[in-house]
Fold:
Amino acid sequence: MQFFDVIEARGSIRSYKPDPVEPEKLEKILRTAVKAPTARNKQGFKVFVIKTAGHEKELIKMYMPESNWFVDAPYILCLCAMKDVYQDPESHRDFSEIDAAIVMDHMTLAATALGLGTCWIGAFDKDAAREVLKLDDNLEPIILATLGYPKQPAIKRQKKTLDELVVYWN
Ligand SMILES: Cc1cc2nc3c(=O)[nH]c(=O)nc-3n(C[C@H](O)[C@H](O)[C@H](O)COP(=O)(O)O)c2cc1C
Structure:
């Protein structure tokens, strides 16, 4: 798929087929995380590739109990920031969330290009994620995304117009 077609095709998917994700596709997606820009090229992140099968009950604790679709996806990706990397006394800003968002965006777009669906999950319980994933203290879970084959194509959601969102400043 061409880049601009990928942008058009992507949309949040909240219903998944049970079909497995091919390991080659998963690796291709993860390789885009490695290529993503990060502040000062620190790459202070870890991507947890979580297989949902057999772990549904634990994983649902991280999100909303009524949202079963979350664990219908064969994988959940969890983007974690490495705290020690972002505790740089010289820099005045913590770019860990920006970096994590860029990395996740690369992966969700790559997934779309490969015919897979994703949905970003920000409304998750960080403490539950820490416990379920047994994260060490140095890792801060920032954002999750489901990954799998969509049951239906993405819904085209209403977006604002260019005029509403862009300011040409001369
Ligand atoms: C940072 C972020 C957090 C999000 N958190 C959630 C979430 O917790 N649950 C959910 O169902 N969707 C979540 N979404 C998906 C958005 O609701 C979705 O992207 C938005 O409605 C636009 O729809 P589209 O992705 O189909 O264009 C999140 C998206 C982003 C970028």
